[in-house]
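Here's what a typical entry looks like (Acetyltransferase):
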Amino acid sequence: MSVVTPVAATLRRITAEDNAAIASVIRQVSAEYGLTADKGYTVADPNLDELFEVYSQPGAAYWVVERNGLIVGGGGVAPLSCSESGICELQKMYFLPTARGQGLAKKLALMALEHAREQGFQQCYLETTAFLTEAIRLYEHLGFARIAEPLGCTGHVDCEVRMLKPL
């Protein structure tokens, strides 16, 4: 009997060649959870197919999770638009089912938070929706606390769960 060992995942910074693959992951996961463009979720972002360029801006970074040459997830951090300069936002954390439950989201989020600290941010904000319970549990475990009012101008009007963490 042969034993199949799982191939380890690699977390690395996004490249321009990753744009189509990570956009596809985001669209697949959004469809899985019913996060439609008409409700103002990430799939409606006009720059979804250009994440390398978006996260090449000062203070921003995006990482992809690669396994067997395929992108299976990703997430990033960027300055929070329309807000005080000391606040960043944890953004676009999406993982295919094959990449969930292995600690990859936690590892990526910790990398993003460390990057944010190194960039001089004092707080990290995020928005999500209540039925993404696994994500909310992770964010709470990482020290994010729910806040009532939205910060910045993210455009994600249906993300009713807002969280903030001191860095």
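The chain is about 25% helix and 25% strand.

More examples are in the samples folder.
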